[in-house]
């Protein structure tokens, strides 16, 4: 019986048109879906949130069924379809060189227009005494004119007949199994405007491809494609490729998701920013999982120039009980010059933020996380992380003078330790409340030797569903 449930969970996860695709990536419940899948012994798919949701059983039934309700029908009928409307109010306080107060509100709309055709939209507006947004609000306008705090966080239409998904619009997603970061595509930058195609031609195979705009006013584009392969219900392997390029217009060769980008870049175009990524997650037994991700930005197969490799990798493991408890440990290392490139327009950035891991280059981090949903409708989550950051940044580019060797991380290393606690409550179908508190201790703050700093942040949000 349990083996059958695990196989069913695996089948659900590979169908891109699964009901859970409507659950927003920014929803705190997504932190619980991967541990819930660990508890079943069948890892989630490699593309979140398009991969669907895990099976619901035992102590995980509350979070999984809530996520399914938020992402699927069960709202108000609209002809032959349905419509859901959410509202959010947030309040946050921060102590960082003085006390700061931030507040925001957002409106989310989700509707089925006709069978298999859905639309998804969220608009948000916020204000902050330090011109920074509250938790889970877009930072898109930071660095631009003050007061520009109205933003379309996402908005897309999805056509999902059977095992196909064709979507057009501003679509948030992450690729890879990481619990605390993703190396190739993460939610560190605002959602990209894109054309997305995914298909599951077999129960063990899922394909995803996209072409998006990174900076339309400077003609910078990103194309990505990915294969998720399941040789067994307990094992998922992901193979991904990405290319970021500057061009007078969209490059049709890169828009073709069915050919490899590297030969095109090597033979037909000059010096675009290409990446290869390999990831996998394995559940050796119910309640246990391990994962890894390897990003290859630049691998030096020629040695005469003594150039360093540009690599990043993540390793992690997780345990989850049938009663709704989980704990994980994850380590990430990113070499210097990863995400950089010779041409500034090819830096792996969207709105000045790395499209991959927010940890950034020339850095590593170990993070421990734990959570408990056994007191549902309450859910508690805690994390503790320690990071080392060198002086290298994505803006270093890829100078001709660079050579292999040297310390990692480089220069005066900044050390930071972060402790965070989050509590969520779901007292009714129409209401949920979230809150959190985090504190950061920093040594060699700003890479200044002996400089120490501390930062505290507390936040609370209330969400209504109609």
Major sheet: size, sense and barrel closure? 18 strands, antiparallel, barrel
The CATH topology is what?
Porin
- Ends: how far apart? 37 Å
Query: N-to-C SSE series?
Result: HHEHEEEEEEEEEEEHHEEEEEEEEEEE
What gross morphology would you assign? Answer: globular
CATH class: Mainly Beta
- The Rg value, from CA coordinates, equals 22 Å
The CATH architecture can be named as Beta Barrel
User: What's the overall average pLDDT, rounded?
Assistant: 87
Strand content: over 45%
Instruction: Return residue spans where pLDDT drops below 50 for at least 5 consecutive residues.
Output: 1-20
The amount of helix comes to under 10%
Q: Count helical runs.
A: 5
The computed structural class is mainly beta
* Count of distinct structural domains: 1
Beta strands, count: 23
Condensed summary:
The chain has 466 residues and is mainly β. The chain contains 5 helices and 23 strands. The protein has one domain (2-465): Porin.
Provide the descriptors you would attach to this structure in a database record.
Porin, 23 strands, two-stranded antiparallel ribbon, 18-stranded antiparallel beta barrel, mainly beta, disordered N terminus, 466 residues, single chain
Would you write up a description of this structure?
- With 466 residues, the chain is mostly beta strands.
- It has a single domain (2-465), classed as Porin (Beta Barrel).
- The chain is 10% helix and 49% strand.
- It contains five helices and 23 strands.
- The chain has an 18-stranded antiparallel barrel. Strands 1-8 form a two-stranded antiparallel ribbon.
- A hairpin with a 2-residue loop joins strand 4 (99-114) and strand 5 (117-128).
- The longest helix is centred in the first third of the chain and has 13 residues, at 2-14.
- The relative contact order is 0.13.
- Mean pLDDT is 87; it is low at 1-20.
């Amino acid at each position: 019986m349990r083996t059958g449930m695990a196989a069913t969970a695996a089948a659900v996860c590979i169908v891109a048109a699964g009901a859970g695709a409507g659950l927003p990536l920014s929803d705190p419940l997504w932190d619980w879906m991967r541990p819930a899948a660990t508890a079943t012994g069948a890892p989630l798919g490699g593309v979140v949130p398009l991969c669907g949701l895990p099976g619901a059983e035992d102590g995980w039934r509350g979070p999984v069924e809530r996520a399914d309700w938020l992402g699927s029908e069960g709202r108000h009928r609209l002809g032959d379809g349905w419509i859901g409307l959410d509202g959010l109010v947030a309040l946050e306080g921060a102590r960082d060189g003085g006390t700061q107060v931030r507040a925001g509100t957002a409106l989310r709309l989700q509707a089925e227009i006709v069978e298999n055709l859905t639309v998804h939209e969220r608009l948000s507006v916020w204000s902050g005494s330090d011109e920074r947004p509250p938790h889970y609000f877009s930072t898109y306008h930071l660095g631009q004119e003050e007061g520009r705090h109205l933003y379309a966080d996402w908005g897309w239409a999805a056509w999902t007949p059977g095992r196909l998904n064709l979507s057009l619009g501003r679509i948030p997603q992450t690729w890879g199994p990481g619990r605390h970061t993703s190396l190739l595509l993460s939610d560190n930058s605002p959602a990209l405007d894109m054309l997305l195609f995914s298909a599951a031609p077999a129960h063990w195979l899922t394909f995803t491809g996209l072409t998006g705009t990174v900076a339309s006013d400077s003609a910078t584009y990103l194309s990505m494609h990915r294969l998720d392969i399941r040789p067994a219900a307990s094992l998922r392997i992901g193979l991904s490729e990405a290319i970021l390029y500057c061009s007078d217009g969209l490059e049709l060769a890169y828009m073709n998701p069915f050919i490899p980008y590297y030969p095109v870049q090597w033979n037909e175009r000059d010096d675009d920013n290409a990446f290869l990524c390999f990831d996998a997650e394995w559940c050796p037994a119910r309640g246990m999982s391990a994962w890894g991700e390897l990003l290859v930005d630049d691998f030096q197969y020629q040695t005469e120039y003594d150039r360093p490799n540009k690599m990043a990798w993540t390793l992690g493991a997780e345990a989850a009980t049938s009663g709704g408890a989980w704990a994980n440990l994850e380590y990430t290392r990113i070499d210097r010059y990863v995400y950089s490139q010779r041409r500034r327009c090819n830096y792996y950035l969207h709105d000045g933020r790395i499209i991959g891991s927010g940890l950034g280059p020339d850095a590593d981090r170990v993070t421990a996380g734990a959570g408990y949903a056994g007191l549902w409708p309450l859910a508690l989550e805690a994390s503790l992380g320690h990071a080392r950051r060198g002086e290298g940044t994505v803006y270093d580019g890829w100078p001709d003078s660079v050579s292999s060797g040297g310390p990692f991380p480089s220069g005066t290393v900044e050390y930071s330790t972060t402790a965070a606690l989050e509590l969520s409550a779901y007292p009714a179908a129409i209401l949920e409340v979230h809150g959190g508190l985090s504190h950061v201790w920093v040594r060699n703050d700003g890479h200044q030797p002996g400089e120490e700093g501390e930062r505290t942040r507390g936040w609370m949000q209330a969400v209504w569903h109609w």
